[in-house]
Amino acid sequence: RTLRIGLIPGDGIGKEVIPAGRRLLESLPSSLNLKFEFVDLKAGFETFEQTGAALPDKTVEILKNECDGALFGAVSSPSTAVKGYSSPIVALRKRLDLYANVRPVKSVMTAKNPIDMVIVRENTEDLYVKEEKTYEGPEGKVAEAIKRISYKASFRIAKMAGEIALRRQKIRDSGVPSIHKSPMVTITHKSNVLSQTDGLFRATAREALADPRFKSVGVEEQIVDSMVYKLFRQPETYDVIVAPNLYGDILSDGAAALVGSLGLVPSANVGEGFAIGEPCHGSAPDIMGKNIANPIATLRSVALMLEFMDEEAAAAKIYAAVDGNLEEGKLLSPDLGGSATTTEVVEDILRRL
Amino acid sequence: RTLRIGLIPGDGIGKEVIPAGRRLLESLPSSLNLKFEFVDLKAGFETFEQTGAALPDKTVEILKNECDGALFGAVSSPSTAVKGYSSPIVALRKRLDLYANVRPVKSVMTAKNPIDMVIVRENTEDLYVKEEKTYEGPEGKVAEAIKRISYKASFRIAKMAGEIALRRQKIRDSGVPSIHKSPMVTITHKSNVLSQTDGLFRATAREALADPRFKSVGVEEQIVDSMVYKLFRQPETYDVIVAPNLYGDILSDGAAALVGSLGLVPSANVGEGFAIGEPCHGSAPDIMGKNIANPIATLRSVALMLEFMDEEAAAAKIYAAVDGNLEEGKLLSPDLGGSATTTEVVEDILRRL
Ligand SMILES: CC(C)[C@H](C(=O)O)[C@@H](O)C(=O)O
Ligand SMILES: CC(C)[C@H](C(=O)O)[C@@H](O)C(=O)O
Known about the structure:
The structure is a homodimer.
Chain A: E1 2-10, H1 14-26, E2 35-40, H2 45-51, H3 57-66, E3 69-74, H4 88-95, E4 100-106, E5 116-122, E6 132-137, E7 140-150, H5 151-173, E8 184-189, H6 197-209, E9 218-223, H7 224-233, E10 240-243, H8 245-258, E11 268-271, E12 274-277, H9 296-308, H10 312-328, H11 342-351
Parallel strand pairs in A: 1-2, 1-3, 3-12, 5-10, 8-9, 8-10
Antiparallel strand pairs in A: 4-5, 4-11, 6-7, 11-12
The complex binds 3-isopropylmalic acid (2 copies).
């Protein structure tokens, strides 16, 4: 099988980690019978400065028409609003209808307090519809934004969360060690304040998860503020968390803190038949060009992308190689307290494939 | 000076901790020259079930016309939406224009990694305006909520954050030991996505803090998701955090997790010349009636209320008595791993006044 992968490094360390992702794909054992072709694509603040568009139409078209999947690095946000600029990754998620942002946060099993959760974040609506207006009120400026929650988006994201819970259980049943015994989905919302919007999310998620297919999946709820509290007090209890866009954004950074570094946390932006792997860290201009960015978030994002292309064997190989590197703990990047370069970490992981 | 205090226990353990707050006020040393009168007031889910109103008008009127301050316990949220019921504390904040929710999160100085921050949360707008609507779209129900951010509310909350930063510095300068050397305010927002609403919050907060009065106060910014990440990775770096309503809600629960229990975290809802102390924990129906609720969040909320009534000497006495109890660590409630009852903890703290 030959897979065509779009590569969108973006800004900052995106340019260092996406090439590492490419190397990983090129280094997968031939026994997997996978071939890859790559197409380099532009997006980001630098692209905006050069072309006036942060997300060129050409990038979207090539992804849509020619690619089986893609890897996205990171984009820089200007420190003050720049006219005409808006985040290309948010736009990309919407234009390709990549309705789920899947963010597994997992420590190695040998950690003192192992955790293993995945945050399934709705990726197309909520406050991210970016419908804002500003007007002059009697006491100065007032700005409003719309938070939109739909039955359709809530249903499909909860369904995906249920499917991921089942898939994780299948992997556990196959003998992969885990801290969880049975599948569980936690629905996050703030319906005690937002009874209509978050109320709709909550009720719809419950409806989707009531499908007999999910009868083995436990379902519980957490209000978002107490979810953040529990995330830090009892992180080991969480298996799959499903949340509207903004809460998912916040929760996944919080969960990342638990494993020691954002540099470890991958994500996939997933739609019908298409997935873009994306490390959760940003463009990190402060460490750019130093060859010290942690490549693991990207390597795991490659694996996650492959999972959504049903290439689970390839994904499993990558996860195991990364875990091997982390468990040995000899070649770690500076964010994990080590002194290895990006290249050294990548090479150590490739050796373990 | 005689102060008249409204007591609103609300539901659940609110009924156990608010009486502890009253006892504390009655037990303050006479050298402080403070007298207290109390008026019992109703609000909460039980009140709603009895009277049809979660926040009776009478409660609001007595607070407005007769009281110098108040203590609020907690309210239960029904597990599914109940027609006509909506959170009385959210309503109270708005009706009394208690525009700031001040939440200090502090470990004892003898903690392994001491932290000492205060979250200054805007308390009247953002998604808490609760302007929602639901309509039938082509693919099912759609619900929308308004997130409103105004110049006026953003300015006054940032100004209050600046004032609190200065006040904290004054207390440090007077010799009270602290982990901070100089005052700092961190502005939290998500203006990389919400350029108008959160952009307005950010720009206005910067403007308010640029006042020459605050020239000794450092000002920095954090995007809310990375704020949650940093809160858990480097909590000791934060002094004063200012945030729109919802982010403030989430951040304060997150910060509470760092000190080991929500049962330790106080808050004050503050307006012009009026403050309501409120423990950050909820009504905790699971432990209600067992006399094991941690009273410390309420006792510290009493102190915080007194600070906003300019009774700083009384507040300092209470903080010191609570710290004494925690540092000794002999009489702790179950949430802190101890086995003391609510009454025993209260009595230990009263002894230390
Ligand atoms: C950069 C920003 C727009 C983005 C988001 O909020 O989704 C980022 O925080 C993320 O989590 O991918
Ligand atoms: C109970 C709820 C409405 C409230 C809020 O969101 O403000 C609570 O979480 C709080 O922090 O006081």
